[in-house]
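User: Predict the complex.
Assistant: Input components as received:
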Amino acid sequence: MSSAAALERRDVDNEHVGRRVERREDDAYLRASATYTDDIRHDGTVQLAFVRSSHAHATVDEIDVGPALAIDGVVAAYTWADIADSPSPGVLPIRTGSLERNVPGHPVLAIDRVRYHGQPVAAVVATGPYIAADAVDAVSVTYTPKTPVLDPVTAPDEDAPNVHDGVPDNVIARTGRGDPTATDRAFDCADHVTSITLENNRLIPNALEPRVAQARYDTVRDRFTVELASQSVHGHRRKLAETLGVPSRKLRVIAPSVGGGFGHKGHHHPGEAMAAWAARDLGRPVKWTATRRENYLEGAHGRDHHTEAAIALAADGRIRGLRVDTIANVGAYGLGGSAAMSGWYGSLLSSEYAIPAIHCATRGVFTNTCPIHSYRGAGRPEAIYVTERLVDAAAHELGFDPVTIRRHNLIPSDAFPYETAIGTTYDSGNYEPALDRALDGIEYDRLREAGRNRADGRLRGVGVACYTESTGGGHESAVVRLEPDGHVDVAVGTHSHGQGHETTYAQLVADVMERPLANVSVNEGDTTATPTGTGTFGSRSAVVGGNAVVSCAETVLDDARSLAADILGVDAVTLSYREGHFAADDESISLADLAARSYAWNAPDGVEPGFRTATSYAPDGTAYTFGTHAVEVAIEPDTGALDIVRYVAVDDCGRRINPTLVEGQVHGGVAQGLGQARSERTVYDESGRLATDRMLAYALPRSIDVPRIETEHTVTPAPGNELGVKGIGEAGTIAAPPALVNAVVDALADRGVRHVDMPVTDECIHQTIQSSD
Amino acid sequence: MAEHEVELTVDGEAASVAVEPRTLLVHAIRDQLGVTAPKIGCETGKCGACTVTLDGTLVKSCMLLAVQAEGGTVRTAAGMADGDELHPIQQAFRATHGLQCGYCTPGMLLAAERLLADQPNPSRAEIRSALKGNICRCTGYQHIVDAIERAAADAGGAP
């Protein structure tokens, strides 16, 4: 593609794009007739269930599956020995490129040793889920416990036990980003240095639908069909193929309706592989359904960063440098790219500020806990949290208003594209209007004037967080064609699990082709029916998938135009096109007629049936979403009870395809961000057992916990893609935690409180007030 | 394990299922009767995805044994629409984008229906309170609250 500046922005007609179009997928969900993986029934299906480690760290001395096999209805029981005897590697693939050691991946069943509470040790298969549960209980496993490594901060210490034998310091990845020398110099010359120690709390992702898979094996064709809850059928096919040791072409992967993803369903878990492996072994359909507890024990967790950071400033409040040292807990195994994730987390540390020198050192460390993987934001919330907390802390120390110091350091709107000191190039930004709108929205000046003491005796706090977010990476594949009746058929490699692609992609294509929405179908989630693509994660579908389908639709229309010109005997450029009809003078031909002719036996040479067009689209660089969130809180000083009085979110995701859906993404993201900030705490007890192993013990935000979220926006189109769109799926999880914590610290500032770690529960606030008095 | 024959009506259809004493109502409805409207999210009565009404009472069907529903009348979200015509609450959810992934939706719809039957003109705080047993991970609840407020207004409950 040509340079970003040279890109001509596509002027898509606004019949549908930019409008609050109701979702087309909703009818099935509202009737409860949409099919999720667990709703599918195949005759003869047997249920697979796991025996899981009751220890955080132990050797597995003996597994006796005999008593399980003796139960009526139990079909099979497997241990690692069975996997080892098969042609399958049975180890989940790990991306080792950026890692300093070639570390072992996660085996689908434990190999002689368990490394976290809940790790699968054996699998049983029975005629139904209740008998499978009985069989799990009947398997006896003898362990010799080992000392677990639970604290990531001390995990690299010399006297810490080792999670893996080949990794003596438990460090899987050691990354340095930015310029250490320039950063040292910035700190040496600084008038003021503010330091902070903070934790980005471990989260359990909690899509409402647990992970689930149904696998069938066709013995005649030697082919697997796996239905599962996935954000990326093509990614899952590739990973499943590796775990099973078969070529990808032997696998068809289907993700039907999926009940939320949030990153958690973008990667590969043992259950899917075991279901497929057992389906081949048994020659019958195998279903695996995780319970919520299993999802907590062995569904990858998120975040868990432990950071020492410092910011260097001049006396006038200008930021001179930023130094960050982070320990990122990886858990017991590297999963996919999870370990590498700790390396690129630093890329957003400049947030919205012009910081001349940054250095970020990160160590990814193994512990005897559930593996960590990407969860909504995946490295971005961790980075922005560090900077936005530091900026607030520095403002308090220097006696600046936190907004003044932010405004003073914003990257100016004429500086884009802007390369940060950590080496990231922001494509675009216009930060001040978004900041101003957020401040106007929350009535910042009025609140500051009113002070911290409310008339009702409560303490008032105001928190502001600016952010920027990298969105829309990688390539995406799309195919657009006309059916013989002129209906437009779109197939994309992304997947919708709540985002509403069936509507937004159709809005785009309907406008390009000037067809009613009803004449456009969108297909996703089946490796056989869609081109090999990348999937939905990292706020990428609108950016990459959206441009891919538009590019295809334009080519389809161009090809139809050529055929129309041939038939009408005119030059293609003289043809007008309007709402499904090409016309020249008094002659016209419909798109449906052209489609039918393209399929005919005597179709002209070079005419592709249906004008079928495939593309693999990659934007010219990353699209950077940005914005400012502001929150007002009121704290009851005697009890610590916190109310979120108001929450204002101003986000800029460039051109908005469907504003209602954009707002829905912001609401959901903010709710999850507030969940991290206020209530979600993952606890391993002293022996390494997960104490918060069910929803009753892990406080997800409820309807009464989430405030009304007031949304506003600015529009700064992305220069690197023709539609000018940026992703919006993760903004809320990035901005909400620092905004909320900044507000709490602001409320308690007069009591000398400088920082509180998340989750900032009422109890935590109460204790903080008590210890500050 | 000994099985019990349980007679019940689900969304207007009389049915009979043979269940073990330990079989949860949600499994009997989903796996044996094939009515997959109630979803399973937590098995602990916390998330509300499996919400149905049993003899008019809002219940979490993962917290009841199937044998406890003997002779009962179960209503699921699949029974709300009148043929092609969506129930007014369903229409309001669609109009306000009150759902994203759809997994919590069957439970939310029934909780909303129960609330509006008891309180035709609820405040937003009352709506939020009525939904506190139903977890949604996608919407942040705001558009769901909007939907219920709108359904109340459409039904003439609002001022």
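The domain at 4-34+474-617 of chain A is CATH 3.30.365.10 (Aldehyde Oxidoreductase; domain 4).
Let me know if you want any component modeled separately.
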